[in-house]
Write a structure and sequence with these properties.
The chain has about 160 residues and is an all-alpha fold. The protein is about 75% helix and about 0% strand.
Length: about 160
């Protein structure tokens, strides 16, 4: 009673439902839970007995191979759960770390974004100049050829061959 909750009385643990409802619940629990488990166990035992009697050693060895594979898969589940637990722990740790990061990290992130945009714009300007110069030279070269004037310019831009 020291934790501030209501006092515990025996009538709190008694079923408040009518006896008919309790009987229906127990009947549904039998048909939805207990009966399927018992039926599956009985069918498994009958199947194994028929397999041993009718199948012989060949059929038993095939079933044993599949059972071994299933056992290995089932034993791999704890490893999978541990891995998922580790990933979940890492996600939780990252969420806690993000709560404790200083507020100036946003400013640093914005600064890096601005540097990226400035660099991207500068390289675009340089590339545009080179592309315009090459296309102009290509147009001049084509016009001179159509006039019958031979030029020393190559037909296509030579690609530099890089060796790694």
């Amino acid at each position: 009673m020291s934790d501030g909750s209501r006092p515990v009385y025996p009538q709190q643990f008694e079923s408040k439902a009518e006896p008919i409802v309790d009987a229906r619940y127990k009947r549904q629990a039998w048909w939805r839970v207990t009966f399927p488990v018992v039926l599956a166990a009985v069918l498994a035992v009958v199947f194994l007995v028929l397999l041993i009697v009718l199948g012989g050693p060949t059929a038993i060895s095939v079933v044993a191979r599949y059972a071994t594979i299933l056992l290995v898969v089932l034993l791999g589940f704890p490893l999978l759960l541990v891995t998922l637990g580790l990933f979940g722990g890492l996600v939780w740790m990252m969420s806690k770390a993000l709560e404790k990061t200083p507020p100036y990290t946003r400013k640093a992130h914005d600064f890096v974004g601005n540097v990226y945009r400035f660099t991207d714009d500068a390289t675009d300007r340089v590339v545009d100049v080179v592309i315009n110069a090459r296309s102009t030279m290509s147009g001049v070269n084509t016009a001179l050829r159509e006039l019958g004037i031979k030029t020393d310019l190559p037909d296509e831009a030579e690609e530099p061959h890089r060796q790694i």
